[in-house]
Amino acid sequence: MDKDATFFWDLTARHLAGTTTPEEEQLLAAWLQENPEQKQAFEEQRRLWQLSEKQPKNAFSPEEGWQEFLQRVQAEKQANAAETVSPAFPWMRVAAGLALLLVSVFLIRYFLFPPVQTVTLAATDAKRLFTLPDSSQVWLNKGSSLTYQSDFGEEDRPVTLQGEGYFEVQHNAHKPFLVTTSGTETQVLGTTFQVSTQDSAQVEVVLFTGKVAFRAKTGQKQEVTLAPGQKAVYSATTGQIETAFNQDQNELAWKEDRFQFQNTPLEQVALTLNAYYGVSITFEKPVLAQCHFTGSFRDAPALEEVLVVLTKSLQLSYNEVQPNVFRLSGEGCR
């Protein structure tokens, strides 16, 4: 053949990249049959190329790749200046060129298709409002966190919640919004709702507007669809989902910093205050839990303020029996 070796190693590079014509493939095959050393070098370069194809995106370091690229360029310049490459082995020069090509492929893949990363939003010491890449908003209660991938919104909109969050989701019928917890999934298109995993034994979803599908990920994989004003509770113990109309006016007390009680049993009042302030309110006598209270509080009232109004209204008293533990006492409801 009148073609030199450099031509065929250039042809090899295009073969590995998949850009050769049928005629060029025939030329390359005939050239490889001429010399066992040429075929051996070809197989080695093909092995390196296949390894690059299997390389996971986030396993490649662009800094290391770039440094290797520069080192190989410098080595090639020195080799050319000293003319140390023997004409008997022209494939060595082209093999170095192929190595440079592999590094270039890595760099292109990394910057055109960057590795997917995990983004974490956390409300460590107080509730916080976050805006997601699709302009949806989420309020996270204190001690709660939300994670999503950096490719969020490209095909769908999955997030993972730990704790309690209130969501205002932007409508997009083609990209469902999915909230995942330890045992459930809540899928929406555009709506406002709350998901709570504060109790490790259950997950609760309360819907305010729109429509959501709430399903269990394990067991019978039960699924329910909620309408505004409904709530669903998943039990990790039974694996079942129960639905009901939401009767709690203070479901969003943690977010809005206000309480509204309308002839509410004192037992329920205590549960609301416990969740908001992180305390424990107990009763000296069981009968006191059945007393009813009507009143409202706004603008993040102090716990002492609420307890003073509560006990004076019902002619009761309270005292802190230990840090963050309060006991209500008295003769009964009046």
Structure description:
The protein has helices at residues 5-17, 22-34, 36-54, 62-82, 90-112, 253-256, 266-277, 303-314; strands at 118-123, 128-131, 137-140, 144-149, 157-162, 164-168, 177-180, 184-188, 192-196, 202-209, 212-216, 223-226, 230-235, 241-245, 259-265, 280-283, 292-297, 317-322, 325-329. The chain is an alpha+beta fold. The longest helix is centred in the N-terminal third of the chain and has 23 residues, at 90-112. It is elongated.
Structure, briefly:
This protein is of the alpha+beta class and 334 residues long. The protein contains 8 helices and 19 strands.
Number of extended strands = 19
How does CATH name the architecture of the largest domain?
Answer: Sandwich
Series of H and E elements: HHHHHEEEEEEEEEEEEEEHEHEEHEE
The CATH topology of the largest domain is what? Jelly Rolls
Question: What is the strand content?
Answer: 25-35%
**Helical/strand content category:** alpha+beta
How far apart the termini lie comes to 111 Å
Order of neighbouring strands in the sheet with most strands: 1-4-5-7-8-11-12
Main sheet overview? 7 strands, mixed
Indicate the mean pLDDT.
83
What is the helix tally?
8
